[in-house]
Each structure stands twice: as C-alpha cells, then as structure tokens.
Amino acid sequence: MLLKVLPIGIQSLQIVRLQSAIIKANLYPQLNYSASAGGGRAGTNAQKVNGGIDGSAFNAFGTLNWELDIWGKLRHDTRSAVARFLSEVANRNALQASLVAEAADQYFLLRDLDNRLIIAQQTLTVRKENTRIISERFSKGYVAEIDKLQAIQQEYIVAATIPSLQRQIITIENSLRLLMGLGPGIITRGYSNFDQSVTPDIPVGIPSTLLQRRPDIIAAEKMMEAEFEQVGVAQANRLPSISLTGVLGFASPQLNSLVNNDGFVANGFGGITGPLFNFGQRKNAVKARQQRLEQSSQQYQKIVLGAFGDVDNALTSYRTYSEEYNLRKAQAEAAQKALILANARYENGYTSYVEVILMQDNLFNAQFDESMALRGRLSSTVQLYKSLGGGW
Q1: Alpha carbon distance 273, 282 (integer Å)
Q2: Distance CA 289, CA 281 (A)
Q3: What's the mean pLDDT when you consider all of the chain?
Q4: Which of 155, 186, 249, 290 has a 20 to 30 Å separation from 44 between CA atoms?
C-alpha cells in the first residue's frame, strides 16, 4: 500500500534547503554590476563641490564585495543552516514513518472489523435458524412462549451489531484513503489478521543505540546543533567585520569613447566596522541564543526519554497482547464446545433455554474478544516499528 507524503512536508523541506543555500553563499565573494547614463548642466562653482555635471556621463562597473570571515560568523551561520536542513529532513522521515504506522494500524483495525462482521453475520444465520425452530416448537406446544421470545431477542441482539460494524468499516476505509490522498471509497483487502505474518522474533534487550536512528531524535539533535552555531554567530557579531570591495569598469562623458584606456576605472577598498556602544544589545543577543540552546538541549533530553518510554510501552504491549490473544483463543474454543453441549442438554430436556442463551452470548463475546486481541497484537508491532524509528 503506497502512501503519498503530505505535500506540506516536502515544501517545508525545500524551503529550508533553499535557505541553507542562501546562507552558504554568504561565504563567497559577491559580484554585481551597475551601469548608468545621464547628463546635465552645472556651473563652475557647482562642479567644484560636486553639485552636478556639465554635459553627459556614462559608466559601467563591476563590483566585487567580500566579507572576510575572520571570526567565523559566516561559517557558524552556514553550519546552523545545514543543521536546520538536516533537522527538516529528519522531520520529513518522521512524518513518513508516522504515516506508514498509521496506515498499518488502520488496516489491522479494518480487518478486525471485517472479521467481527463475519462473526456477527454467521452468528445471525445460526440464531435465525434457532428462532425458526423454536417458533415451530412453540406453535406445536412443545416449548413455552418465553423460549420463543428469548430466541427472537438473541437474534436481534446480534443483528443490531451488524449496522454498527458496517458504519465503522466505512469510516476506517475513508480514513485510509485520505492517508493515500484519495477520496471516499472501498479499500482493496489483502491478508486477514489471522493470515498476517507477525515479524517479531523481537530481540531480547533491544540496544539503546537503535534509538539514535529515530527521526524525531535526529531532528532534535540537529536543531540543538543549529542553536549552538547561532551562539557562535551572536558572539562573532560583537567583533569587528572586515570587508573588501573592488570596482572595475569604465566611465566617460561620451558613449562612443566609453570603452577605452582613458575611461578605465579600477578601485579597491578595505573596510572595518564594529560595535562601539549599543547599550548591551549584542551582549544580550548572545545570552538569548544561549538560553535557546539550553531550551533546545532540554527538548532533546525530553524526546530521548520519551523514546525509551515508547519502546518499553510497545514491547509490553506486544508481550501482553500475545498472552491475551492465546487466552482469548482458548476461551473461544471452550465456549464453542460449551454451546454444543448446552444445545444437546436442551434438546434432551436436561436444561432450560436460558443455558443455551448464556452459552451463545459467551461464544459471541469470546470470538469478538479474540479478534480484538489479535488486532492489538498486530498493532503493537506497528507501535514498536514506529518507536524504533522504522524497524529493528
């Protein structure tokens, strides 16, 4: 069953990737160009103070700007952007694992409902036949009317479960189709829950290193790395910035003589800028980034501890549901035999129809409980798959 990853997850990943590329480009020189043409009239005194030009002016320049990353500000910013991108990749992987787990769990629930519907339909067929037989016996005076009414009541109890199950089946089918990006409709069935191959053999003592591949842990770790690098950016902002600027081009009062040796222009500049007094603004910016790093670290620890809890819960669920399923299966087998004996005792006049009703209810409930316990066992393997980040 193929799942369509939610488009919003892919779009977020693309946005972060592009932002990372934008920040990384700051490490390299920036080459720009400019050209202008114009003219005017200005007196001699105006020209002396650069108040204007007298005549025409044409120029075309290429400008090279490069900030020297002496304190590592740009490198920290680049590594932060890369870490955020990897965090987004991990979030996308977590989304995929979550969708796969959700689809599998929903499918097991769907097949459980299918199985319970079959049980209800088969039981209804049997109880309709019982009602027919009891009604004939009542008409001939062999049994009391209470037996007939009890048989009808038992038939309707089972019949009423069928619409409820059908309603739930349609709801789950639509949920599954929504996960696949489809509209309402029917889901093609595969194996029933009884025919599913339960993968575990789950290894005893799953190593904690398996949790390192959990996408949410990876995402939290990379986000913590990104915040750490931003501390470096904030600290570098407190230091001077050194930049180089180069201008290469041509300038001329006539367009036809723009590109010649007389019009050639080449200039180079170096500059340094830095904070002098800003009322603690940049110092506080460093402290704010350090607080964000601490917050990110605590979030990472919380996710790791939660991951250990998820694995333990999943292992416990698989173990206990396996035990419960075996017991429910034995209970259903015993209930089937008890109903056969109760029918025989009733046919031979050794007991009332109440005993048959009791055994019918016991079997019906036991079969339902067996089906739900099997579904719980299968769902626990999905839970373990998700808690370990996609398998073991």
Answers
A1: 14
A2: 12
A3: 82
A4: 249
